[in-house]
Design a protein that fits this description.
Helices cover about 40% and strands about 15% of the residues. The chain is an alpha/beta fold and about 325 residues long.
């Protein structure tokens, strides 16, 4: 009996070993590498030595005077907020818009037309509008010399014309619309269009006879009166535009809301001191600043639409 049991046990053991040998080897479960959580990009700390807030301006008047006045404003902002602002002067408004849109500048002193362009491209949101003589609107003017025979817009055909910049609101956008309303094609009917580099430059060019006529804001002649005492007699106004919303201080959407609000508060505080008002005047003959929303510029957009013009038309 014992031998039979041992034999049975032996046979069972052999069968188990044979089955084990024939069975496929067990495949170990693969171990998955833990997936690393994506690391969020660290937020940029604006207004530091490493990342100053760049404020782009254009030389609509004397470039050195603009930069000097903006430097004083930047110093006032740093004193009240601790934020470092670095003013830079671009070559023209187009370059200023590009600086806003490619992230090179976070604040822009943009004129009406170029603010509308930059906002449409998603690069700028207005925070403040400038004041001149207590108003947040201004007008453009067409100027000439009494000896040119030009008495109005329709008489500009066949003459040379100076403008501050191809995208200056009062210096070209509005006057070019007015010319078209009179049946003139500025590119075809003007003998030559000359970019004078600023409103002061237009006045001086007309005064000197380099251009028969030109366009500026009202009244840019007073900016050069110290150097040209008889400018009011030698250079006359033959047309004025409808009211235009004033130029802006606009902000990049990349700036955090808290930083933007600190800047706006510091800039509005300039209205409250003689020194601050002097700094504003030195930049662009501003007499103050006022908070506005984007809708403030809807009237200008409607002027373009009423003239049958689009931003794309004017840029081409």
């Amino acid at each position: 009996m014992k031998n039979r049991f041992n034999l049975l046990f032996s046979l069972t053991a052999v069968a188990v070993l044979l089955l084990a040998a024939c069975a496929p080897a067990a495949t170990p479960e693969p171990t998955e590498e833990p997936t690393a959580e994506p690391t969020a990009e660290p937020a940029v700390e604006w207004g530091t030595e490493a990342n100053p807030i760049v404020w782009v301006l254009v030389p609509s008047q004397d470039a050195d005077a603009v930069l000097s006045g903006a430097g004083d404003i930047a110093a006032a902002i740093e004193a009240s907020t601790g934020l470092i602002v670095e003013p830079v002067v671009s070559t023209d408004f187009t370059a200023a818009v590009e600086a806003m849109c490619n992230g090179e500048a976070q604040i822009g002193a943009l004129n009406t037309f170029n603010y509308v362009v930059a906002h449409e491209r998603g690069c700028a949101d207005v925070g403040l509008v400038s004041l001149r003589f207590g108003s947040n609107f201004y007008a453009g003017q067409v100027i000439t010399r009494p000896d040119t025979g030009i008495a109005g817009i329709a008489d500009l055909a066949g003459h040379t014309f100076c403008r501050p910049d191809p995208t200056s609101t009062s210096g070209w956008i509005i006057p070019s619309i007015a010319m078209r309303a009179e049946g003139l094609d500025p590119e075809a009917d003007l003998t030559e269009i000359i970019d004078a580099g600023g409103h002061d430059g237009v006045v001086i060019a007309v005064y000197n006879g380099d251009c028969d006529a030109g366009s500026t804001f009202v009244d840019a002649r007073s900016n050069v009166e110290e150097d040209y005492p008889d400018v009011m007699e030698k250079v006359v106004v033959v047309a004025e535009s409808a009211p235009i919303p004033n130029d802006t201080i606009s902000f990049s959407p990349d700036l955090p809301e808290a930083t933007r609000e600190a800047l706006i508060t510091a800039l509005l505080a300039l209205n409250d001191s003689e020194e601050g008002l002097a700094d504003l005047n030195a930049v662009y003959s501003w007499s103050g600043l006022e908070r506005v929303e984007d809708s403030f510029y809807d009237g200008f957009r409607q002027q373009l639409q009423a003239a049958g013009m689009s931003i794309e038309d004017l840029l081409n």
